[in-house]
Amino acid sequence: MEMVGMDWEQGSLLNELTQGKDLAKELQIHLNPPASTETRLFLVEKILCSYEKALSMLNSGALSGMLEAQPSAANSTLDSSDLKDISKKRKIMSTWTKRVRVCSGSSPDVPLDDGYSWRKYGQKVILGTNHPRGYYRCTHRHSQGCVATKQVQRSDEDPTLFEVTYRGRHTCMRSSRLAATAAAAVATAPAVEEYPKEKPELPEGVVLNFETELQVKAESLDSKEEIFPSFAFPYASAVLEEVGNDIFPESMVDNNLMGSFSPAFISPATSESNYFSVSPCDLGSFGRRQSSESDLAEIISGPLASVPNSPIGDFDFTVLLDTSFSFGNLDCLS
DNA sequence: TTAATTTGACCTTT
DNA sequence: AAAGGTCAAATTAA
């Protein structure tokens, strides 16, 4: 596999997190029906070890660099002369990537529904990839000035896997936003062929989306890898929720091991809720996030700061460990 | 007829 | 210069 845009550290990190994920899945199997205590303890031990390693990687390298980034870049670093500069605008937009798996058999080219309505505006063959990259922007770009965009790249190694890179927050109104939850889907794993292009909006803004597996990835800025730790927990509902006007990855900062993984974190309290669902069949996910300096500013000055009492700021979320996530040669897995 | 997609040209970034 | 990203006219779908 060609580890496009990935350095050694990322690879190791992926390995560790993936291993943790696999172990957790194994543990899940052993829990029901319960295995011997020894087996469970051993697996838990290994899981913790994996995460420990991943954490130390994150804390030693990328993360520390990120935490040093200058504040309020989003507001103050732009010269008036730069305001028209698209590239600079681009830099102040938060960017994150999630991996979306189309579970079973699956129809290949169905645009994965993430609760928003997108309009394709381009497609490009990317060097070193077998599949073209699709470029989408929010349907309400013009009507509401929503600047959110996303790129969808099918994985070479795993055709059922899509890497979806989001850029910019949605500023469009809720009518265009569909929440996704898989809380009720854990038991059932529907076929993927049934991805509608637009899902009907449910009263609470909740929509079921079973196949997505969430992974937050980040982009490097100025060749600095900046990674946010985020972790997943087994046996929580397959829901990752974003509340507020920010994107969820920020919520993971400083909450490496937050213990808040109650099964029902769906709180459609605000009209800006945004749910990310995680595959119920591939329980789990993990995330890491890279961020530009200005992204960090957003993080620092964002909801987390404004809602200090909340364990994770404005964000309540639950993530599951994914075990089927594949990322090339993960030969360290056993 | 309107809206979405396709696709080659054009622009930006590296 | 090459690759990635966006635009927009032509085409297709609703």
TrEMBL record:
Keywords: DNA-binding, Nucleus, Transcription, Transcription regulation. The keyword Cytoplasm does not apply. GO terms for cellular component: nucleus. InterPro entries: WRKY_dom (IPR003657), WRKY_dom_sf (IPR036576), WRKY_plant (IPR044810). One of its GO terms (biological process) is response to ozone. GO terms for molecular function: DNA-binding transcription factor activity; transcription cis-regulatory region binding. It is found in: Nucleus. Its main location: nucleus. Residues 107-170 form the WRKY domain. The keyword Iron does not apply. Transmembrane segments: none annotated. It comes from the Eukaryota. Belongs to the WRKY group III family. This is WRKY domain-containing protein. It comes from Rubroshorea leprosula.
